[in-house]
Specification:
With 142 residues, the chain is of the alpha+beta class. The protein is built from six helices and three strands, in the order H-H-E-H-H-E-E-H-H.
């Protein structure tokens, strides 16, 4: 008997997350921090709500993550003097090195996850996942 689709998705999600997170402390990162660092690296002046929306988490969660990253000296934060609601966030060299190492690790897990898939199968699988995300959230994943 096949697992229901939602259970299979749940198992695959957890298997991938467990594979990625088992070495997370090696990069001095905690859950949620890599995606926030990734967003900040592309958007140095942003509002908390923008980070939260892009990362699919609450503003309160982003605030905690920013505090933790700042304590670890992976980013510097200050209020934008021209827009009091926006932060000027800068990733430090330590933060950029951690993010680069994390991204490399994630690419290795991707290779393991997709081993045995043809390029056409990977492309089709990718498009299915994008469509599922859009169906579930109403947002474009790109």
């Amino acid at each position: 008997m096949r697992l229901p689709f939602y259970m299979l998705m749940f198992k695959v999600f957890h298997a991938q997350r467990n594979r990625m997170r088992k070495d997370m402390s090696e990069y001095q990162l905690a859950p949620g921090q890599p995606k926030v660092l990734r967003y900040i690296s592309a958007h140095s002046e942003c509002m908390l709500k923008d980070i939260a929306e892009e990362c699919d988490v609450s503003a309160a969660t982003v605030s905690k993550i920013l505090n933790s990253l700042e304590e670890k000296k992976m980013l510097r934060r200050r209020i934008d003097p021209e827009n009091k609601r926006a932060y000027q966030l800068r990733i430090t060299e330590k933060g950029q090195n951690a993010l680069n190492s994390w991204n490399k690790h994630c690419m290795e897990v991707d290779q393991i996850s997709l081993k045995g898939f043809s390029e056409d199968e990977k492309e089709l699988f990718w498009s299915f996942l994008e469509r599922m995300y859009e169906n579930l959230t109403g947002k474009d994943v790109r």
